[in-house]
Amino acid sequence: MRGPHNLWRLVRTGATFERTGAMAQALEAMDAPPAIRVVARILGWPFQWLGHKGDPTQPPVLRALTALGPAYIKFGQLLSTRPDIVGPDLARELTVLQDSLPPFPVAEARAAIERDLGQPVDAIFEDLGPPVAAASLAQVHRAILRATGRPVAVKVLRPGIERAFLRDVDAFWLAARMVEIFAPFTRRLRPRAVIAHFEGVVQGELDLRMEAAAAAEFAANAADDPGFRVPAIAWGASGRRVLTLEWVEGVPLGDVPALAASGADLVALSERVIQTFLTHALRDGFFHADMHQGNLKLGPDGALVALDFGIMGRIDPYTRRVYAEILMGFLRRDYRRVAEVHFEAGYVPRDQDMEAFAQALRSIGEPIFGQDATQISMARLLAHLFEVTEHFGMETRTELILLQRTMVVVEGVGRSLNPAMNMWETARPVVTAYIASNLGPQAMARSLAATLRVLSRFGPQLPHMTEAALVRLNAAPPPPEPRRTPGWVYGLAGALLGAALVALGTLL
After folding, report:
1. What SS3 state is found at 312?
2. Long-range contact list for 256-263, CB < 8 A, 24+ apart?
3. Which of 112, 207, 263, 347 suits 380 as a labelling partner, its CA being 20 to 30 A distant?
4. CA 465, 468, 469, 475: dihedral to nearest 10 degrees?
5. 3-class secondary structure for 243-304?
């Protein structure tokens, strides 16, 4: 339940950040204003003895997040995609955050499988082995599916993980509200929308039936894609807390020496990773949103195989078109058109100067062209980009968070295979093909036909709907309700006052 009772969890979080030395680093990286710094130190410094120690071999922020548990590890991964919030340096540090925990016993995994599937483990699987991978949410076992005799990967959720995550997410909501109150300038970044996005992602990952459905949809979309495939699902051996997929042999894309030793063309492979992601995002509007090296393998047949479908992204047709037009404008160095698209989509407020915005976009794009990819500093580029978005009052587009995050991750995968890879030139064929098929006369005819089909379905109701809308528009507005201060504000003020008195008493 959300509210001030979650303040204790925030105090424990602040105490852990203070004890591990992460508080000062995090506040500095986010360039936090004085009000946020004061509140954070009040929540942390007097109580640091209550904080977790963490692993002293890790950098401070990573040490604090891993000590606080799975939800904080996941949230750290999300923040690694938001350099506009945590700064480029800390975002880069968070990208190496290892989403791993010690495995839980095989006996607990067997009990969870039997409870979820309603059958003895030995009736479903042969040779259910020890965990081969353990992450913050679940762990994976290798087994043989008794019905087919084929090797499978069995994913099992950690015991009690749902309650632990939801408890911490409630505390995140309170933290987001506090940030918006004490630092109004952060409202442009929409902290609560970030938490809502995070909660939605986690909720999807905590029901493995949703992951199975996502894998099935992804496989159907990519069925005819050459050189790419998705493991088959064993539906009879899957449930809410258990997911069984075809076991995939191959070389992980993170093992570059092994890929080179296998004779793989690393340059071509880096281009295939980028173009596959963009094809799924633009063509289907449904893409794998966690395409790091650990979730990609090069199969024995040379196909790129995707794994782990807990985080998938979806974008609607209009947003896809906007995104493609922005990419194509940059590729053509037509910054005026890029600016127009931003204004047409409502990404930039109407009261801003379009010509000035186009000039700012030119200052972002021009340094990219004509340079070797190894000479482009993504940190400086992102820092400049966020300065521009803040100057022109652009709000965070939560529907594009996963897309932006995945594009950064996928570029990192491509660069690991081919350091000289140019993201823009690699993307050009896919974006050009999408533009040609979706912004020409044939695309306009398809859009018009779709509109007519919708109108035909609602045709008999249109007169009534129009009349009802006009009545609502002409009705007198209801009197405004008096604004009342929420009860949690008083609770928060009292808690902060109490923390301040403790701090003062400690000093005295």
Report:
1. strand
2. 256/416, 256/417, 259/298, 259/417, 262/298
3. 347
4. 180
5. EEEECCCCEECCCHHHHHHCCCCHHHHHHHHHHHHHHHHHHHCEEECCCCHHHEEECCCCCE
Please tell me the distance from the alpha carbon of residue 500 to that of residue 445, in angstroms, as a whole number: 65
Distance of CA 499 to the CA centre of its chain: 34
pTM of the model: 0.72
The position carrying tokens 């976009």 is 361
Question: Per the structure block, which two tokens stand in for 358?
Answer: 């186009």
pLDDT tens digits, 143-192: 999 999 999 999 999 888 888 777 777 777 777 777 777 666 666 667 77
* Catalytic entry in 84, 168, 170, 290: 290
One-letter amino acid at 160 equals G
Contact 161, 240 (CB under 8 A): no
Q: 126 or 200, which is more confident? A: 126
Identify whether 168 is a catalytic site residue.
Answer: no
Q: 267 to each of 262, 297, 333, 369, 417, how far by Cα in Å?
A: 14, 16, 26, 20, 7
